[in-house]
TrEMBL record:
Molecular-function GO terms, alphabetical: ATP binding; ATP hydrolysis activity
Alphabetized InterPro entries for the sequence: AAA+_ATPase (IPR003593), ABC_Ni/Peptide_Import (IPR050388), ABC_transporter-like_ATP-bd (IPR003439), ABC_transporter-like_CS (IPR017871), MetI-like (IPR000515), MetI-like_sf (IPR035906), Oligopep_ABC_C (IPR013563), OppC_N (IPR025966)
GO cellular component: plasma membrane
Name assigned to this protein: ABC transporter permease subunit
Localization per Swiss-Prot or TrEMBL: Cell inner membrane; Cell membrane
Amino acid sequence: MTQFLALLLRNRLAAAGGIVLLVVVVLAVLTPVLPLANPDATDTANRFQPALSRAHLLGTDHLGRDLLSRLLWGTRLSLAVGFAAAIFAATLGAAIGIIAGYFGGRTDNLIMRGVDMLMAFPYILLALAIVAALGPGLGNALIAVAAVNIPFFARNIRGVTVGLAHKEFVDAARLSGLGHGRIILTEILPNVVPVIVIAMSTTIGWMILETAGLSFLGLGSQPPQADLGSMLGEARSALITNPLTSIVPGAMILVIVMGINLLGDGVRDALDPRLRSGALTRPMPATRVDRPTPPPAETEEGGAVLALSDLQTQFHVKKRVYKAVGGASLAVRPGECLGIIGESGSGKSVTALSVMGLVASPPGVITAGAARYDGQDLIGARYETLRRLRGDRIAYIFQDPLATLHPLYKVGDQLVEAIRCHRTVSKAEAWQRAIDLLKQVRIPNAESRASSFPHEMSGGMRQRVGIAMAMANDPDVIIADEPTTALDVTVQAQILSLLNDLRRERGLAIVFITHDFGVVGQLCDRIAVMYAGRIVEQGPTEAILTTPAHPYTRRLIACVPELGEGRRKLEAIPGLPPAVDRLDPGCAFAPRCEKARAACLTGEIALAGSGQRAVRCLFPETEIPSEQSA
Ligand SMILES: Nc1ncnc2c1ncn2[C@@H]1O[C@H](COP(=O)(O)OP(=O)(O)OP(=O)(O)O)[C@@H](O)[C@H]1O
């Protein structure tokens, strides 16, 4: 709740709307105790008194009644009717929607066709028909306004419920023997409540307007009782001669509806869990860069096509700072494959995404370092520069191709788009290239497969399409973030050999992120091991796999089961990786390391080594000739 309020107040417009509404509601609640004139007492001798006249702060209406008093009593009534109608419509509409969406089939059909019939009438005609049948009066206007809004809630909530009704957690509740009533109350309802609240917050203003409309037509509140609509209706005849009598209730309607709408938008944003981690804004097109120190000078990386120097990326979530990448230095040359390995949460993906400014901001910020492609620093580069390079010179392959491929476009069309985004070629040429790419990634019947939708392909096929997409513009660097984790071993082996062939044939540089030492051994020339956002060891694959120097690397390798090696006890690493918002000084692995000594817990431990081999450890498993590397 506190988090919700904090987010709501951070949105200035919503806060302003909320404050205005609060003032109006407080005034409406206090109206009976305020020293106001009788709102219905007529005084025809003092008709149309101007504002600020004696005893009438806002003047009087056509019957000499005090406008301020009528305004506050009218506001009280209008708010009460609007809120009551919204609660009534939301409760009934949500119940109908949940039942239709949850039970589906004939129940859904019957209910929703009834709702469709109601929606087929213009809502104001329907409201008029209901009031005509029930008779004029504010109570009946409330029923009419609520009734015409029930279909809106029913449709919305049904849609959400249909999506939830067959989710795994609902199936699990069914399997555990819960009845329909319990499932609806404990599994479905908590998930639809935010949608109901959002729909309500954005429709209350609308219902106040509709009630005012009915009163304006004389079908709502009856004389002498005032609500905002009836005040407007009565003032209609004097609109030109005495506009004040129309302006006063009109302005109040405007203030209330604007206040509710601004607050409603804020509530919607604050209830959206995706917005909780950052400010109420969409992510920026490129990660925010806030480098107080100048980028490190370019080092001689032996012909590296992509070189990261001391890259630091953080997530700023409220007052917490998560140091996801705490100074990573890496380099990859043409035709080389560099593996980045580490436990979940060690910062591998954030390192990779930072290169092209793809970490979502907010909350991500790059705070130091450089990422040089062909000598050009990409950190802080103009968005246009990054856009030109993204997918063209530096391409990504992600773990879940279903999440990256558009579900509604044929894979061929998506490849055509990727090509035409960076090259001026005709559609026919791009289509032909798309088919060639599908052939290169060994998709059988590439011509017909180009016309398939992603859901018509297997996971392995989709991942090949992901690789084809990355290859579309013949890039220099491919960053592959666990591209084979979701695949079975045979498809995994095919994809690895495909990537291997591509880099050998085309001189591609590959940065390959994985958890899997087996995969690293097959594909990578060199490995960088990450822990808590930092590289703790790097070197040639063979050397690291046979003689790991960092105790973390040794323990990671010891966790890997080996086929055909007989029974061997797998040694899990005790404890958990540290939270990157509370990193203690010294080695982040020390609390889990059996070799840790007091010296490991103080000060900065440098990545030290010689040539290509380096380790960040004071007591490494294998001594590496010391010559500080980073
Ligand atoms: N939006 C975010 N807000 C706060 N922290 C984040 C956010 N995104 C990532 N992090 C943190 O950054 C750290 C690094 O995450 P990252 O995704 O790079 O890990 P990873 O090594 O790639 O893990 P995995 O193998 O599970 O993909 C983690 O501690 C994670 O909790």
